[in-house]
Design a protein that fits this description.
With 264 residues, this protein is an alpha/beta fold. The chain is built from six helices and 15 strands. It folds into two domains: 183 residues, 4-Layer Sandwich (Metallo-beta-lactamase, Chain A); 61 residues, Winged helix-like DNA-binding domain superfamily/Winged helix DNA-binding domain (Arc Repressor Mutant, subunit A, Orthogonal Bundle). The strands form three sheets. It has a seven-stranded mixed β-sheet, with helices on one face. The chain has a five-stranded mixed β-sheet with strand order 8-9-10-11-12, with no helix packed on it. A three-stranded antiparallel β-sheet has the order 13-15-14. The radius of gyration is 19 Å and the shape is elongated. Bound molecules: zinc ion (ZN).
Length: 264
């Protein structure tokens, strides 16, 4: 399915609470094409990607991977084994054929892309920026619907915010996310995401005004409309916010309990 000139999408059959309707695999370029985020290792999905390439009479020059999660990377290994398609990705990904650093340019025929090192959702995460069309392939940094899960390593929210600010400065017109529909007003979406994180900081501080709380208590207070199956992900995000609030000296941790600092 063509989503915007020079870009088509194959939706992987892996819908879930975490992946929404499934992973978006994008085919970019004309004639010579690249596959952005081949997706999960589901044979029917790999067949669908190759069929789309064949229908367009195109040649695949590379798989470009945003990050190593199981719903984005594994089909790249399958495509390489089946058709010899090389894998381009972050240097921390296992067994890539070309390690992409921040600012590296990738030419796919006449389609230009630049790799952007954008940690926060995972430590090793790239976005791909098409300057000509102001298109941003954002992996899991931004979702078409809802928000995203932050990385597990300490400081992930700090990294996530700086990645978003960097993308904001680019001023993308269209965002093509790893999950959910294409975002037509990319810049507004990035600003909405930054505002959402600031709002979450405020909500956490507000709850702590009535006394110290654990991460679990905060999740139950703040994620009332979230299915319980997603609580572990919500807890990861709350923890990331608490770490950031501790970094800016608003809260402190005592064992499993977090409390406001006196002049917060
Ligand atoms: Zn992910």
């Amino acid at each position: 399915m063509v989503v915007t000139p020079g870009v088509s999408r194959v939706l992987a059959p892996n819908p879930s609470l975490m992946t929404g309707p499934g992973t978006n695999t994008y085919i970019v370029g004309t004639g010579e094409v690249a596959i952005i985020d081949p997706g999960p290792d589901i044979p029917e999905h790999v067949d669908a990607i190759l069929a789309a390439v064949q229908d367009a009479r195109s040649t695949v020059v590379a798989s470009l991977v945003t990050h190593a999660h199981g719903d984005h990377l594994p089909a790249a290994y399958r495509l390489r084994a089946r058709c010899g398609i090389p894998i381009f990705g972050h240097p921390d990904l296992a067994d890539v054929d070309r390690a992409l650093g921040d600012g590296d340019e990738i030419r796919i025929g006449s389609f230009d892309l630049v790799a952007l090192d954008t940690p926060g959702h995972s430590d090793a995460h790239l976005c791909f920026w098409n300057e000509t069309g102001h298109l941003l392939f954002c992996g899991d940094l931004i979702a078409g619907v809802g928000t995203v899960v932050l990385g597990e390593t300490p400081g992930s929210l700090t990294r996530y915010r700086s990645s978003l600010r960097r993308l904001e400065a680019l001023g993308p017109s269209v965002i093509l996310p790893g999950h959910g529909p294409l975002v037509p007003d990319g810049l507004s979406k990035i600003r909405e995401y930054l505002a959402h994180r600031a709002e979450r900081d405020r909500q956490i501080v507000d709850v702590l005004r009535s006394g110290p709380a654990t991460v679990e208590m905060l999740v139950q207070r703040l994620y009332v409309d979230t299915p319980a199956a997603l609580y572990p992900m919500a807890a990861r995000n709350v923890r990331a916010h608490l770490e950031w609030l501790a970094e800016v000296r608003h809260v402190q941790r005592n064992g499993e309990t977090w409390s406001l600092l006196p002049d917060a």
